[in-house]
Write a structure and sequence with these properties.
Mean pLDDT is 91; it is low at 1-28. The chain is mainly β and 397 residues long. The strands form three sheets. Strands 3, 5, 6, 11, 13, 15, 18, 19, 20, 21 and 23 form an eleven-stranded mixed β-sheet that branches. Strands 1, 2, 4, 7, 8, 9, 10 and 12 form an eight-stranded antiparallel β-sheet that branches. A four-stranded antiparallel β-sheet has the order 14-22-16-17, with no helix packed on it. The chain is 9% helix and 37% strand. This is DUF2961 domain-containing protein. Keywords: Signal. Residues 1-22 form the signal peptide.
Length: 397
Amino acid sequence: MSRHFTLAFVTILLVLPSSAPADVGHGSDLFGLARVQSGMRTRRVSSYDRTGGNNDRFERIQDGQTRELFNVRGAGIINHIWITIAPPPEQLSRNDIILRMYWDGNEFPSVESPIGPFFGQGWNESYPFVSLPLAVGPVEGRAMVSYFVMPFAKGARIEIENQTGREISAFYYYVDYVEVDALADDMGRFCAWYNHELTEATPEGETEWGVTGPQPKNLDGKDNYLFADIKGKGHFVGVNYYVHCPTPMWYGEGDDMIFIDGDKMPTLHGTGTEDYFNTSWCPKTLYTHPYFGYARVNNDIGWLGRTHVYRFHVSDPIYFDESLRFTIEHGHANNLTLDLASVAYWYQAPPLAKLPPAPDKETRRPKPFIGVREMHQWRHEWRKNQGNDSRLWGNER
C-alpha cells in the first residue's frame, strides 16, 4: 500500500476500507478505474431545491453569518467539491468568505482559508486555473472545483463564514463523497491553512541583485515567510502562492527552506522561488501543468504586480514523522517588502492539532496596485535629490 499512498489525494481508488487488496490500481489511476469495488456507497450533499423547484441554492447569506454546507456522521471519503457564488468576484470578494472543514468531531477546523485562495483564486480576482487536485472553470473563473481526497472516520462538517461586508445573494454547491464501513487505519486527514503577511525588508534595504548595496546572508531562515508549521506525522502535498510585488524588481530570489522533524537548519534547501515551483529564469508566462504552474502573471512593468504560482507534490510528497516547518525567503535573505499570501495543503495522522490563528480581514485586504503615476513621483523625488538638473536621464548616480 505504501508505494501507492503518495497518490492518495488524487484518486479515490487508493482510500479503500482496510480489507481492500494492497495491489489496487497497480499505481495507475486509469488502470484502477476498471476495478469493481465492494463496501463503498456514493453519496452527495448539495444545495438542491428541497421543494422540487429550480431554486437550487442557499440565498441571502448575511454579512457575519456562518452557514453549514455538510454534516455527515460515520466513515467516508469526500472526493469532489464544486462551488459557485453570486454576485461575481468583482462585486463580492471571495477573499472574505472563509471556508472551514472539521474532521471526526473535532471542535477546531483542520481546513481554514478564504474560499478563493483555497481553490486557486488570489486576492479579489477570478481567472482560469487548472491543476490536478484543484481547478477553476467557466464562466470567468466562477466555478471552483476540488478533487482532493478528504477521509474521515467518525464524521465531517464543512461551513462557510461571510466576512465580505455584504450579502451573498446565492451559493450553489456539491459535496460528493463515498460512505464506507470503516476507514483504513493509515489514512491521513486533509488539512489546509492560509497565511498572509506584508513582509519587512532587511535593515540594509531592498538590496536584491546588489542594486542598492551588498546582500546579506541567511543560513537559518529565521525571518522567512511561512507556508506551514505542522506538529504531528504526515506528508505535505502542495501550496498555492500569491505574490504582490510593489516594484519592478524580480521577487523570486528567495530560497525554499524546509525543516523536518525539528531540524535546526534546513533539511531541504532550495535554490530560488522559481526553482521550487519547477520553473526557471524569472518567468512571467502563463503556464498550467497538473502539478505546477503560473496561473496569473503580472502584465505591468518588470515583475511589478500580482503573480499566482502553484506546486503540488503528487509523486513527491514531503514526509515528516514529528513536525514540518515549510518556509521561503522573500527575496534573497529576506530583503524585499512583498505582500504575500498562501494556502498550504497536507495530510496528517490523527490526533490532529489546531491550526495557527488565521489572518484577520484587515490583514487579508489586498494592497493597491503601484502604477505609472507612483513611478513618476518617485522619479521626481530622485531628480530633486540629484540637484534637479533638467537633463537628468535616470541612470545617474
